[in-house]
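Marked as duplicate of an earlier ticket. Keeping the data here for the record.
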Amino acid sequence: MNLLGCTALYRPSWSTSTLAPRGVGAGWVNPAPAGVSNRLPPHGGNLSQEAQRLGMQPSQLLDASASLVPFRPPRALRRALASAIQGQALRDYPDRSQADLRSAIASWHGLDPEQVLGGNGAAELFTWAARDATAAGLSVLPQPGFADYSRALACWGGAIKQQPLPLEWGDGWPQPFPLAALSEASDVIWITNPHNPTGQLWSRASLEPLLAQYELVICDEAFLPLVPGGEDQSLLPLVADHPNLVVIRSLTKLFAIAGLRLGYAVAAPDRLQRWHGWRDPWPVNGLAIAAGVAVMNDPVGLQRWQGRVQQWVQQEGTWFRAQLDAIPGVKPYPSAANYLLIQGEQSLLELREQLAQQGVLLRDCRSFQCLGECWLRIGLQDRRGNQRILRALQRAQANRAWSRATSF
């Protein structure tokens, strides 16, 4: 079992980060080796910043550092936005209670609207979950994992224990969450399903025991609606009977609306009422509310859209991984999600930079605890986009030493 040795207990601070160079754009970045640019904050999707650095237009870049569906947003969503702009949504203050949005989301999931709270993307909701987590005690973060949980906990001085997960897994989904990796007692656990950046889909049956072990379980299901069979593993049906469970979802990934910022939390009503009292008066704008209501109130259209997205993930993901597997120097890992983790025997930073110079952006994985220079994450594209990535990889392979035959 390949269990990475990154276990650590700490309270996060900004002292381990550095500011981006002047003129490149604001954000916290990790320093890169000499001669290799890494002027990125610890997230993907930095299209404008990278375009400026590379001397290109954003339209010239294929951004596979972010994991969004490659389709235009649904017609119903685009119509709702156009109607909202023509109406009063820009002039009027948004509904602070989000009554229509909460009702639409609750209806789709078979929940009480009091169990739902809309957010300015999932990231805003992580911040409020982290406030509760800090009050509860020590948070366990399975690693490698999404860096935004640490960011959110840092807002409140939350205590963190990094818990490494095995970096070996096979095909076939869902898989049991590795409970044996949780070696020490703590108060809170943050779960990502499917896991980010590995793409592993955890079974609900393996996650449910965590509810009896932890004072608070926070489950990030941002990518779950995109995964074939993913909804069957959701913890949403368990919320009503477990007040210590918070499930957070994003509509950004499913509908390709990262610029609109819309997500939601499902939890006990008293918890969500407390969050509502902490936050800014109008965290979700009127256009985002209109878009969310339109798609969530259309169950037939939503089901059709999810089917289209999941078929793309299944077919294109299988094809793309097979193509990557034929490229010497990198090892693609199995993934149930719309992104794949690849590993090289040596640093892949130079490879990433070569692809960037060709207009293809991949995700630098150094922001994920327990990963380093030998890892990249690739957001799945449509066939044309995936072929562009493969051509860029092949050109880089022909020119650089990183592509030497490996022992994988």
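See parent ticket for discussion. Residues 75-298 form a domain with the Aspartate Aminotransferase; domain 2 fold (CATH 3.40.640.10).
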